[in-house]
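hey so i finally got around to running the thing on that chain from the lab meeting. sorry it took forever, my laptop kept dying and i had to restart like 3 times. anyway pasting the input first so we r on the same page abt which one it is
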Amino acid sequence: MRKIREVLRLQAEGFSEREIARSVGCARSSVQICLWRAKQAGVAWPLSPEQDEATLEALLYPRRQPVNGG
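ok and heres what got predicted. didnt touch it at all, straight out
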């Protein structure tokens, strides 16, 4: 499970992408992608309580539908 809420919170508090990556234990490029996807989706801190980690992940990282060969 990704730590999208924490990434958005830390960014809103002014932390750098490197500091966020170190804090959540991922690569800086992963933080950049997460922030880019959040911006594209119009998601910003503060989040509403119903926007839990699973909801955010589904919004920012939708699963692709398999293509049927036929």
